[in-house]
Structure prediction request, 218 residues.
Amino acid sequence: MKITHLGHSAVLVETDQARVLIDPGNLSDAWHGLSDLNAVLVTHVHPDHLDPGQVPALLSANPSVQVYAESSIPDALAANDLDLGAMIPVAESDEFKVGDLVVTVVGRIHAEIHRDIPRIGNVGYVLRAEGQPSLFHPGDSYATSPAGVDVLAMPVHAPWCAMKETIDFVREVKALEVFGIHEQLLNERGFGLVTGRVEAMTSSRVLDLRSGTAHQFA
Prediction:
């Protein structure tokens, strides 16, 4: 499995038979212009995970792509007079195939930002292919810790999380390797502080994939 971190929560996953983009949001632009995609997976409706301004061009460049989105997203877009085309709504425990990838949907709700801010739907995705490591992308939640995860896309900073929660989340998931996502609100020192603590205080190996270079996980 080849994984490329394209900035913030955008992650490209490639196998022999699949090319999948997760969370094309508005805090990164490295995913703009991607082609030959088989699927786009969206964890929740926040624009740093689903950019309504740029996603239409992505879909036009990939006319056969399937878009899988947390089940409340189509209605949320319609309520704001946004139309990003046909989406396949997904919810916790759903499972589907994209080429040689089996994708399992986990989780239901976004982490709490503040008690006065209504919580929205959020799902995570576990991607598996026979003979390859598994990847877990949680979106904006630490609430779900699926078993058997080899690689974790780890949100490192957000209005909804603290470093103590990040460390506990990584301990719960028990992935062999993790790489930081959701990092655009951190400067270099902040990113290093969080990832350094995670590496020192968990059993997971921490990788820095912010260069945008594809990393082959074996």
